[in-house]
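Re: that chain you flagged

S.,

Sorry for the slow reply, it's been a week of failed gels. I finally had a moment to sit down with the sequence you sent. For the record, here it is as I used it:
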Amino acid sequence: MSSIIKVNTIQNASGGTPTASDLGLNVSGSVLQVVQTVISDAVTVSAPNGTAASVSGFSATITPLSTSSKILLKSLLNCSAPSTTYGGFFKRNGTTIGVGTASGSRQQVSFGMAFPVDANQIHTFGVEYLDSPASTSALTYQLWINNDNTLAHFNRSANDYNNATGKRCISTITLFEIGG
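Prediction finished late last night. Pasting the structure tokens below so you have them in one place:
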């Protein structure tokens, strides 16, 4: 014999929306949602002499379903510069995440970028970090860079010639909510 239960709304004992665990479901380790930002615009950032600067448009926002969820940040960044070095990192709602240990006056970054003299090339860098924000509020992950020179270019070569040596590409920021 089969039964059908039809309801308009299910609430937990306190009157709120039930979580998966309230319903007896184990979502630990499962991907609950995915958000991706694809950036196709060419962006140039000025960050002189080790000063941190945010990279306009290079962010993604996710609202976790549970405070026990983790957020897996994966980013593919295409950038160039005329013979210099950079360090990059992400901030979550203004808080720096996933950087190296402080040591003297060294930059604390998630990844480093070194560019050769060929300003017609674009270099691809990957970032991956598993964050534990303990929040159900909207979380914005924003890319920042530190610079040894003055300019960094994203999604274009440093020279950006309008011929076969000039290049344009995309960068991506993908956020995965992983059930805790």
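What I noticed first: The chain has one domain: 31-178.

Talk soon,
D.
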